C-alpha cells in the first residue's frame, strides 16, 4: 500500500514538522521561565505521527487529542498565535486562556480538544463518529492516544462500541514506549497491538511512526476506508519522545545513551530531510522551510506576549450556562 506522495506535499509536511518542534521548544522556554500555568508535555521526536495522520484528513474531519497534543493541533491547521497565547493563559488564546496546554481545543479546525485524563478523548471521538454516521455525513474522526491508554478500560469499551456500530473512527496509538516511566512490558499483558485490536474485529496495522510517508500511507488507507462506510480501524505508530514526560522531568528510567541513539537514528525530521534531498530538493529550499517555521513560531511568541490576561470579571463565563 505505497502511495506516491508528491515532493510538494512532503515539503509541506517538512515545514509543519519544524513548526511543531519549534513551537514546543518555545513552549519549553516559556515553561522554564515560569510563564506557563500547568505542565508542558512535548511531542518532540513524534512529529511524523501527527503530521502523517492529519495530512490524510480533510478540514471537516475531527480529532481528539491528549496531554501531548500541540503537534496534533498544529498538524490539523490550528492557528499558532492562538495556540501559543493559550499556553500563557492569555485572553487571546484559543480557549481564552481557560484551557492551557492540556485542555486546549480548536473547533475551527476540527479539534474536539486535548484530554489529559489518559484515554478520555477516545470515547468522545467514538461519540462524534456515531453522530456523523447517524447524520450520514462523509466525515471521519481520529482518536489520538498513547501506549499508556492501552491499559485503560475506557479504550476497550470505546473500540468495542465503535466496532459494533461500524463508526467512522480511526484509533491512533502513538507508542512512544513510555507511560511516564512505565514501559509497555510492565503494564500490558498483550503487547502486540495488531493482535489486540483485531480481537475486536477491526483491521489494525503497526507502522514506523518515524517515517511520515509510512504514517501518511496507512492513515490515507484507513481514512478512505472509514469514509466509505468500512468502519473503524486501528493504527499503532512506533515512535519515541526525545524530551522527558514533561519538560524538566528527571528521567531516571532511561539512560542518556538510549535517548541519544534514538535521536541520532530515528529523528523523523532528519529522516524526511534526507528523503527530500534524495528526491533532488535543494538544501537551500529545506533551510528556507525550516526558517519559515521558526519565523511563524517567533511571531506566535510575540502575539502571545502582547495579548492581555483574561478579565477576572469574566472568570465564570464558561462555567455556567446563561
Ligand atoms: C486516568 C489517568 N491516570 C493517570 C494519569 C497520569 N498520567 C498522565 S500522562 C500519563 C502517561 C500516559 O502515557 P501514554 O498514554 O503512553 O502517553 P505519553 O505520555 O507517552 O504521550 C499518566 C499515567 C492520567 N492523566 N489519567
Ligand atoms: Mg506513551
Note the main attributes of this structure.
322 residues, alpha/beta, Rossmann fold, 11 helices, globular, binds thiamine diphosphate, binds magnesium ion
Task: Please provide a written account of the structure.
The protein has 322 residues and is an alpha/beta fold. The protein has one domain (7-306): Rossmann fold (3-Layer(aba) Sandwich). Helix content is 44%, strand content 11%. It contains 11 helices and 6 strands. The protein has helices spanning 7-32, 47-54, 70-75, 80-87, 121-134, 153-165, 193-198, 212-227, 256-266, 268-278, 283-306; strands at 62-66, 111-115, 141-146, 169-175, 204-208, 233-238. A 6-stranded parallel beta sheet has the order 2-1-3-4-6-5, sandwiched between helices. Helix 8 (212-227) links the parallel strand 5 and strand 6 (233-238). Helix 1 (7-32) runs antiparallel to helix 10 (268-278), helix 2 (47-54) runs parallel beside helix 8 (212-227) and helix 4 crosses helix 11. The longest helix is centred in the N-terminal third of the chain and has 26 residues, at 7-32. It starts with 6 loop residues before the first helix and ends in a 16-residue tail after the last helix. The mean pLDDT is 96. Bound molecules: thiamine diphosphate and magnesium ion. Magnesium ion binds next to loops.
Amino acid at each position: 500500500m505505497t502511495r506516491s506522495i508528491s515532493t510538494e506535499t512532503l515539503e509541506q509536511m517538512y515545514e509543519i514538522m519544524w513548526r511543531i518542534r519549534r513551537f514546543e521548544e518555545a513552549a519549553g522556554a516559556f515553561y522554564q521561565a515560569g510563564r506557563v500555568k500547568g505542565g508542558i508535555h512535548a511531542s518532540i521526536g513524534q512529529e511524523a505521527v501527527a503530521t502523517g495522520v492529519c495530512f490524510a484528513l480533510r478540514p471537516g474531519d475531527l480529532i481528539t487529542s491528549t496531554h501531548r497534543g500541540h503537534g496534533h493541533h498544529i498538524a490539523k491547521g490550528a492557528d499558532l498565535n492562538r495556540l501559543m497565547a493559550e499556553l500563557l493563559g492569555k485572553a487571546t488564546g484559543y480557549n481564552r486562556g481557560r484551557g492551557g496546554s492540556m485542555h486546549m481545543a480548536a473547533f475551527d479546525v476540527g479539534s474536539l480538544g486535548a484530554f489529559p485524563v489518559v484515554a478520555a478523548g477516545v470515547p468522545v471521538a467514538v461519540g462524534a463518529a456515531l453522530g456523523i454516521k447517524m447524520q450520514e455525513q462523509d466525515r471521519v474522526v481520529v482518536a489520538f492516544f498513547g501506549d499508556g491508554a492501552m491499559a485503560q478500560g475506557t479504550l476497550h469499551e470505546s473500540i468495542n462500541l465503535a466496532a459494533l456500530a461500524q463508526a467512522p473512527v480511526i484509533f491512533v496509538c502513538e507508542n512512544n514506549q513510555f507511560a511516564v516511566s512505565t514501559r509497555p512490558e510492565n503494564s500490558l499483558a498483550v503487547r502486540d497491538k495488531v493482535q489486540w485490536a483485531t480481537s475486536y474485529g477491526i483491521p489494525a496495522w503497526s507502522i514506523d511512526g518515524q517515517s511520515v510517508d509510512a504514517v501518511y500511507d496507512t492513515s490515507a488507507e484507513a481514512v478512505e476506508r472509514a469514509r466509505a462506510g468500512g468502519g473503524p480501524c486501528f493504527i499503532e505508530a512506533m515512535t519515541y519522545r526525545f524530551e522527558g514526560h514533561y519538560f524538566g522531568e528527571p528521567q531516571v528510567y532511561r539512560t542518556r545513551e538510549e535517548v541519544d541513539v534514538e535521536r541520532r537514528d530515528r529523528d523523523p525530521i532528519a529522516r524526511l530531510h534526507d528523503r527530500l534531498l534524495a528526491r533532488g530538493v535543494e538544501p537551500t529550499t529545506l533551510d528556507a522551510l525550516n526558517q519559515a517555521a521558526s519565523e511563524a513560531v517567533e511571531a506566535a511568541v510575540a502575539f502571545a506576549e502582547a495579548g492581555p490576561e483574561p478579565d477576572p470579571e469574566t472568570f465564570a463565563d464558561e462555567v455556567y450556562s446563561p
